[in-house]
Amino acid sequence: MTAPSPLPTYLYKILPSAPPSPLPDRLPLSDLDKKDGYIHLSTSEQVPGTADKWFNEFSELWLLKIRYETLASGTDGDGETKSDGKAEIKWEEVGRGVFAHFYGGDLGRGNVEQAFKVEKGASWTELKLEW
């Protein structure tokens, strides 16, 4: 599937609860990520809709902010670049758009730039990310 143009500066992983602090080299995968075999990610424009569809019952969520170029270069959660080319971003069509999926790698302190909490207003669709 074709990547969006222009490519996003950041991708986000939505978490239903706070990640460990400080972040470890490898965060545990969600049940869905384990089942599907990749890490589900969203662009800043996709986060509100994804949160509304999959996390509507939560009043607060945590977002992991990840620089796109870091994952695209194959940087794993421990900060090491996988030279075997197995850690990669693939853009794949899902019913409501084209989403980034991270295959063959983990998220952790070596590739997550920031973790922060967001709170739901009347709806997650009202959430605005500045970047």
From TrEMBL:
It comes from Paraphaeosphaeria sporulosa. InterPro entries: DUF952. This is DUF952-domain-containing protein. It holds the Pfam family DUF952.
